[in-house]
Amino acid sequence: MKILDILLRDAVIVDLRATSKREVLEEICTAVAAAEPAANKAKLVEVLAERERLQSTGIGEGVAIPHGKVAGLPRLMAAFAKSSAGVDFDSVDGQKTHLFFLLVMPENAGGQHLKALARISRSLRDPAFRRAVESAATREDVLRAIEHEDARF
Known about the structure:
This protein is of the alpha/beta class. The chain has helices at residues 3-6, 21-35, 41-54, 112-124, 127-134, 139-151, and strands at residues 7-13, 58-60, 63-64, 67-69, 77-87, 97-105.
């Protein structure tokens, strides 16, 4: 699975302004809803916030992968956001989170979302890829870094 196949290019944020977990979800979901007419921002935020209440998706090393199944979505979709300042996202390592890959899928997504989670997680474990997206100054820089990473798989 290629990340660019599911990434909403218009939902790539390189200057996330959010300063709290809730604001991160709101800001990224706003971008997803603007990029995908079938996505309802309020519903996305509700599902993702509920998932965060169960357990943080902050996986450490400055990375979080908020995800959830949302009724009414036409397909699996991803968004990306970067916060230079970092946000307290209740990460497992207690550090601020700088990179966010949001993943939402239809309720009937089956195992497809697990493959996407595994693919994104594997890429983000690579320090070179993390550095590439952390240093990205523009949306195009992020897309190039992801394209380069996709070419490895």
